[in-house]
Amino acid sequence: MKLTVAIVCAMATALLAAAPSSAEAGDGELKVGYYDNKCSGVEDIVRSHVIKAIIQDRGIGGSLIRLIFHDCFVRGCDGSVLLNASDENPRPETAAPVSIGLEGFDILEEIKADLERRCPGVVSCADILIFAARDASSILSNGRVRFDVPAGRLDGVVSSAYEAQAELPDPTFTIRQLIDNFARKNFTVEELVVLSGAHSVGDGHCSSFTARLAAPPDQITPSYRNLLNYRCSRGGGADPAVVNNARDEDLATVARFMPAFVGKLRPVSALDNTYYRNNLDKVVNFNSDWQLLTQDEARGHVREYADNAALWDHDFAASLLKLSKLPMPVGSKGEIRNKCGAINHSKS
Prior knowledge:
Layout (H helix, E strand, L loop, with lengths): L4 H14 L4 E2 L6 E2 L9 H15 L2 H14 L32 H14 L6 H16 L9 E2 L3 E2 L4 H7 L7 H9 L5 H8 L6 E3 L16 H13 L6 E3 L7 H7 L16 H7 L6 H4 L5 H12 L1 H16 L8 E3 L13
Antiparallel strand pairs: 1-7, 2-3, 4-7, 5-6
Helix pairs in contact: 2-4, 2-5, 3-5, 4-5, 8-13, 9-10, 11-13
């Protein structure tokens, strides 16, 4: 049956008028290949942007991996961590102290703009964030960390610094606090240890591990403590950033403070199990890292992953997949944002 242009336009207008501007979270199931018939090539487009960004700055890969954790642990995987401060909401999740140093927002906004040009109003920022974190994990691990991402998430319209501070684990936490925090999201002690391995890449600000700068030798190797003190006293700005993995330090600094560690340096950072070997040697930045050695089960898993890189690759992929499925709170409203940094409509 042939339709005139006028009839087609009228039908399209009616459909658009009937389409809701937002929906309730949980209306649909997440599905691998969700965009295949809605916006072909979505995952390829995301991956191409992530590859380009990591080629320009390999450190951005760790930032994208960190974003999946910060997003999904607060209100589920709804892209709420991407919302900018506004007159309506001056303190979004990024304003929380625990969110210090979050990066990668510009990359996700570029991906969103590209997808909006191709398929307006179809791909959520929440899904883009998950795809990008998965791809960054794959690239930084040389393809060893890989999994299929089910998609179909909506973007949340709420972002609260108070909620972020209350929900996310703090780097000063004790092992008991860490276990309880992860348990609230239905993650086991093993999964706590697995996800902590993301600290094999990225960096942290000195304010996040201040107490470690004076910690005793049974908690941190003195030579590494001296290196951190040097970095934090000489780094740029009031609160310098220091690489999480001593393997990624520069040769001159390591040779000065930890000459025996020089042979462990690598030309490029990689997502791997070196975090666990460093932890056993007490060469880690955060108190929350060292705390994994203070409880029998957690310490056992640290040793397990230090000895078995392939097992950690597999378990990290599985834990990221589980993380990516954390739902929005029941009754939450969601939408497909036009831009990742702002909601489409007023919540009033």
